[in-house]
Amino acid sequence: MASAYHIKKRLRDGSVLLIDKLNKAGEGNTAKSAGMFRSFFYSRTNFYLADSSIEFYRHIEKSGFNLGMRWIGYLWLFGESQFKRIELALRKMEERGGLFTVYDKEELRDKLKVNIEAAESDVGKVMNLANIENGLFVPKAGKIDVEKLVEFYETEFRRMGGKVVYGAKVDRIVVEPKISLEIPGEPYFWQDCTVKGVRVHGRIIEAKKIIIATGVWSSELLDPIGVDSYSKPKKRQIFVIRADKNRLRELLYVDGFNRYNCMPFTILPEPRIYIRPDIDEETFWIAYADDFNRSFKLEEDPQPEENYYRYGIYPVLTAYFPQFIDSYPINAWAGLYAINTIDHQPVIFEENNLIVVGAASGSGIMKADSLGRIVAAVYFEEEEAELYGNRRFNVSDLGIKKRRVEREIFVI
Amino acid sequence: MASAYHIKKRLRDGSVLLIDKLNKAGEGNTAKSAGMFRSFFYSRTNFYLADSSIEFYRHIEKSGFNLGMRWIGYLWLFGESQFKRIELALRKMEERGGLFTVYDKEELRDKLKVNIEAAESDVGKVMNLANIENGLFVPKAGKIDVEKLVEFYETEFRRMGGKVVYGAKVDRIVVEPKISLEIPGEPYFWQDCTVKGVRVHGRIIEAKKIIIATGVWSSELLDPIGVDSYSKPKKRQIFVIRADKNRLRELLYVDGFNRYNCMPFTILPEPRIYIRPDIDEETFWIAYADDFNRSFKLEEDPQPEENYYRYGIYPVLTAYFPQFIDSYPINAWAGLYAINTIDHQPVIFEENNLIVVGAASGSGIMKADSLGRIVAAVYFEEEEAELYGNRRFNVSDLGIKKRRVEREIFVI
Predict the structure, then answer these.
(1) What is the pTM of this model?
(2) In terms of residue numbers, what domain contains B350?
(3) Is residue B196 domain-resident?
(4) Residues B54 and B131 in one domain
(5) Which of A5, A264, A381, B125 could form a disulfide with A73 if both were Cys (CB 3.0 to 4.6 A apart)?
(6) Which residues sit opposite A195 in a β-bridge?
(7) ipTM, 2 decimals?
């Protein structure tokens, strides 16, 4: 939707058609996302993409379109050795202007009633938990209402004359020779060919350029034409706990971290389970992004696993935050990340007149605006994109041939 | 097989078991390969991997084990602008000791009776062919009998006490917690886990380390445990033309390129169709590696396409080499390349006690010995591998996290 918006905005009279197989934009994995954002990355690539997008979203809200942004901040909890490993990186980020506060363990214990000695218990030993030494709080971070964000782009896209077709599944991308010779099985490799359009319900919709921004479904469309999506799908699950006990309400409404007096988005030490507080609905969303042994698998309707909470998350969560003892999910769902397994950063490239954007690896929403602007720059065959806030970005940095992304240190 | 051989050679008393779902080693895509090798690459990564392997194969032959190596050389044909683009790279390769001869178009016409003005004809214009300006001949290159190469490794592997099991399809890789707590659905993400072994016909075969060297089938095994193979399968077809006409026999037995007085392995200008002469069976093997619009697809039994030769290869081939007019395949087959779409070079890494080697992108045979030695180095947890000829190679260069491969310019 962000790509469609930014292309249409610059095309003016040209026509842009957005096709979605679902009945509404943002109903796929966007709707299943935790909708978190942060402008705090070691990798300059990540930082530029996220920070510019977040600033644009802030600007949209200031213009009067509510995106439900809540600047609750991120709080990473660290064990002693973990924290030592990031100290040098932190110092560099500080020099670049990154804002953060380091809390010591006593402050964390007093504020959050977190168990800073989780490693000492029998359970903690079995699970290789860490004693908490420090907390890193980052204020320029929070959550956003993803549906409203999609709605903003859609409203503006339509207002400018952009067209949408929902419930329209693309069967395949149509490749044809530029000059047909009516040979059976065209195009052959010696023919200049072009991506003519897409086939939807047996009918071919033609376009000058085709943008594939279909997340985990990209491979299904791209594999048949021999183009890599550079991403693999992996299930991610979110479990919702209601703040229905006093001790949970106290945790939810903890003072001093942000203007809402709300618990920040909190990430445990290894294993990096996260807790996303929601003061609007008085719940906590709990999740963990497991890696090794979690299959790469494309599913139309991935399901959360009860045992994943019960035996995976619960014992770790309650070892650090005993407030969650005896609390079980009132709701849960699962979505798919489109993971770039090489460097976990997005990919944008053009091949013939096909533009591919994706592989955002779980941080697509917080980078969506920047990615949309870069896609528009590719569309207009520009070497540089201008992100929000007049920041210039080399389009080829997110491509494959001249890819240049900085490795990330803060991975959650 | 090369990995098994090199691990076994160094393990001595330790036991190494090789499992293959087919009834013999090398019966998969190895058997379908053109079996070509060259020690001429711009990329130092490619050069070291190939040159060391080729020198080892030469050494094996000198030791009395016939590998059917024929040093017929490679001949790339170039149009004027194409040749200009590689001249600087060629000069650098010459400085590094690369041996080659540049032929001019008249010499090529006189020797090979090649049509150096293919671009002029109507057909040539339609197909965007180039007039030939130069030929680049590389002598340290040729073909090898892949079955004999596999036989060498297998014989030696068995002689040292290595065991093989054929006709044994691995259903899945078995991951287990290091310490089982008998929780349903183990292992959970907070458990240290290990690759215990593989399941074959319902039975688990355990091993200290597991090496996955299954080419295009790697993703089938690795996706379920959430590990990327960094490769995608793409069909490649070979068509066999008998040298049954005088003009074809004259081309096959052309003088002056090599000691066999045989046509070199010849690569046409764009589209880079190749001609692999075979004086043993008096045939030419013809192929073209199509890219865009050729699907990524895993097939157990990929088939060659008659129209691919008739409408794809034939018109281009005969425009440059009219000797092939009215010649059609007496045989054809198809295999799958395991393509690394990022940099087209092999990948070797370990995750837990699982070692993955693959993504050789069509040059696995000419690099097999080096890859086997690097896998053995990973097995023994060494940072450097020693390739044949005492060449040191950084193991992490072919990994993912610290990957460092030089881009290739000579891609055919």
Answers:
(1) 0.96
(2) 2-67+147-231+343-398
(3) yes
(4) no
(5) A264
(6) A175
(7) 0.95
